[in-house]
Amino acid sequence: MSFEKALFAAVALVISGTAWIVYDVTRPMRGEETSVSGNSALAAAIRSSTTKQPLMLEFYADWCGPCKRVGPEVEAFAEEMRGKARVIRVDLDQNRDLGRQLDVQAIPLFIVFKDGRETARDVGAIPKSRMRQLLGL
Question: Mind listing the pLDDT tens digit for each residue in 94-117?
């Protein structure tokens, strides 16, 4: 991308009121419930979602400031939900096909599945109370 195009994009973002903060990863996610790699594994997780054990996917990227801010809260929420719901962070840069299939337009994006179907979605660095509300718990 040329400097002029990059400058235009930056100006357009500022005018639209959108700001991106880019910084390094603060800490990795831990625990089996919070990491799944590969589109087939994610598709299997979506299919295995149930009303009693829903699945929440959080699409993020390492370069996304709001994703980094909400990351620790998602991690804590995943621990709280163990046995009640699966909470999985999905790196959009490594799962672009799934992102396209699920129409991921902005991140962080939270999508909830029950019985293999999408039941809720919200975008932004949402608090744990909103995550719980999306899951219906």
Answer: 999 889 989 999 999 999 999 999
pLDDT of residue 93: 93
Encode pLDDT of 114-130 as tens digits.
999 999 999 999 999 99
Residue 62 CB-half CA count within 13 A: 9
Distance CA 83, CA 81 (A): 6
Domain count, the chain: 1
Give yes or no: 67 in active site: yes
The catalytic position among 67, 98, 104, 135 is: 67
Residue 13 domain-assigned (yes or no): no
Assign residue 69 the CATH number of its domain. Answer: 3.40.30.10
Q: Which domain holds residue 78?
A: 22-135
Q: What is the pTM of this model?
A: 0.71
In a domain, 50, yes or no: yes
Q: Of the residues 36, 64, 111, 134, which is catalytic?
A: 64
Rama region for 115: left / alpha / beta (φ>0; ψ in -120 to 50; rest): left
Is 52 labeled as catalytic in the residue annotation?
no
State how far the Cα of 2 lies from the Cα of 8, in Å rounded to an integer: 10
